[in-house]
Amino acid sequence: MNTRLNLTLLAVCICGILTACGGSSTPSAPTTAATTEVQKPIALLTGEALRAEVERFRSSNNLPAISVSIVNQDKVESVVTGTREINSNKTTLSTDLFQLGSLTKAATATMIGRLVEQKKMRWDTTIVEVFPAWRTQIRREYLNVTVEQLLRHRSGLPREVNEATIEKALPLLSGDLLADRRALAVLLLQDAPEYAPNSKLLYSNIGYALAGLMAEIAGGDSYENLMQREVFAPLNIKAHFGFPEDAGINNNAGHTLVAGKWTVTPPVIDPRYAFFINAAGGLNLNLADYAVFLREHLRGLQGQSNYLSKANFQLMHTPIDEYGLGWNVVNAQGLGNVSLHNGTELTYYASNRVIPSKNIALAIACNCYDPSVMNKLDEFADSLLRPLLPQ
């Protein structure tokens, strides 16, 4: 494997809606969690030098706004450059939100880890345990699917809700958020699995939505309130679900390329489906706050966190078929296991890297989306981490 830290080489697929897809043709990653040895500080760009490099990249690629956060030996540094809307004077602020897409998945798994430690559920809690009435309503193949299998994309469920199921669900929706999510889930679980559960990895946003539903029952509250209670409040970060445009504050706007020009683009997710999918891809954060979340995972993998046990942090970063719980986990030459993910809902893009062996994490986000830009952003993020690689 090439030693340049590159998302393509590390097997994070660039995929469609709400994604950072798991699995690849690269060699299987080790089945043990990454080393927790704490390294000496590594000289990465900081301060004005970091800001200048981010701005150079943004302006040379004519992007609306970019934010980068780096966690280096427990210190968080974040920069943001550009504008909320392309070719405007609406400067993007450090507090502005970016839609993180499937980076939500690791946060969902982390919230469930809190419920596990509170003994409100187990990693091997099954769907039928949480929803016993579904025993006669859903296909038997799904009855014993566990929350861990859902979080590892090993449930056999398809990637997305299909149009026919959405149409079937519409007459059943009442406006009660929790009840409507369960009604749609029952319909989804009446379709045959694409593969036998736990037989292989099949990236599924539906699986994460169902894990969120199981947490709602176990935690006695909505998914969104559980995330506030178990993730955002304990870590002292502020988050929203949906899109920054929905937050009711001055904030970023998402963009897509139209005829070669960045154009402000309203959210494109189907509103008939959006209420169901927050646990898979609905998270909005500024990257300074998101870095606090990444830092806690680094701390936890080193046994230095009171937020969750080291064992549960390790479980989340231990791969089966190169996927943990909300993380692709692959082995990179000179770095050991690296946890990483990307995400988009097609008007924003974000990706991350967590490198426990170096006690370093990085996140990058843009209020824009295009496949070519995703590649450029990831290559730029990797360039910021080049000092980590063997010389």
Please trace the helix and strand order, writing H or E for each element.
HEEEHHHHHHHEEEHHEHHEEEEH
Global geometry: globular
- Number of DSSP helical runs: 13
Which assembly state applies to the chains in this document?
Answer: single chain
The CATH architecture of the largest domain would be: 3-Layer(aba) Sandwich
Structural class: alpha+beta
The chain-level mean pLDDT equals 88
What is the total domain count? Answer: 2
Q: What is the distance, rounded to the nearest whole angstrom, between the alpha carbons of the first and last residues?
A: 15 Å
CATH class categorisation of the largest domain: Alpha Beta
Pfam families: Beta-lactamase
Keywords: Membrane, Signal
Protein name: Beta-lactamase family protein
Subcellular location: Membrane
Give the secondary structure arrangement, pairings included.
Elements: H1 47-60, E1 65-72, E2 75-82, E3 98-99, H2 104-117, H3 127-130, H4 147-151, H5 163-169, H6 177-188, H7 205-219, H8 223-235, E4 240-241, E5 255-258, E6 261-264, H9 271-274, H10 278-281, E7 283-285, H11 287-301, H12 310-316, E8 328-332, E9 336-343, E10 349-355, E11 360-366, H13 371-384
Antiparallel strand pairs: 1-2, 1-11, 3-7, 4-7, 5-6, 8-9, 9-10, 10-11
Helix pairs in contact: 2-7, 2-8, 5-6, 6-7
Subcellular location: Membrane
InterPro entries: AmpC-like, Beta-lactam-related, Beta-lactam/transpept-like
Protein name: Beta-lactamase family protein
List key phrases describing it:
391 residues; alpha+beta; Beta-lactamase; 2 domains; six-stranded antiparallel β-sheet; 11 strands; disordered N terminus
